[in-house]
């Protein structure tokens, strides 16, 4: 497009890429002490973010149908996005709306971390894909539009009926589960965790993610834990603790 900075004589491509890469690294650096990630990993992540930012600047606008659907989702209530589920399917119960103060005790933090340690023994990709399956299930009729919020959901041939074969889903699913792992490990250090989570939330806003989506993801997380953990580990106390945790993480 004529408005694309890459084609403008005022900002050469190299300068644009350098600027975008710097912004991406600035966004990722706060995660380094939390995730204990090597600098090379952050650099690789910054490259991915740079490519995505460049596409947003230089690629044509999203189709009007998708733009309209994002606007509809932004105005939707949590009830609109969380239909009743079929009998026998794990459901999201409890208030999963964001809460300003940590409502959990030290014992609950310990229970969350102990329970999540069991989750970490499972294949991360398997947990992540199951999480996304539950997200789309809880989204109900809005699932196709929710899928388009993700890059893998906008690819040709994407099907909600065959998520296991979806190209691009596993890397994103792994990243989401890894982020939850970082959050769980830092629940007793909220002064460090909350600013990072806020930064992460602000990064997602331009992609159409709105507050109404977070309770759906929280419900999907609870359902995933119920499906993946042994019954003796997924206790009512654990479920209540994770529900409270999501109120802070979201």
Automatic annotation (TrEMBL):
Residues 82-96 have a biased composition (Polar residues). It comes from the Eukaryota. PROSITE patterns: GLOBIN. InterPro entries: Globin, Globin-like_OT, Globin-like_sf, Globin/Proto. Keywords: Heme, Iron, Metal-binding, Oxygen transport, Transport. The keyword Metal-binding applies. One of its GO terms (molecular function) is oxygen carrier activity. Residues 79-99 are annotated as: Disordered. Residues 103-250 form the Globin domain. The keyword Glycoprotein does not apply. Belongs to the globin family. This is Globin domain-containing protein. It comes from Alexandrium andersonii. The lineage of its organism: Eukaryota, Sar, Alveolata, Dinophyceae, Gonyaulacales.
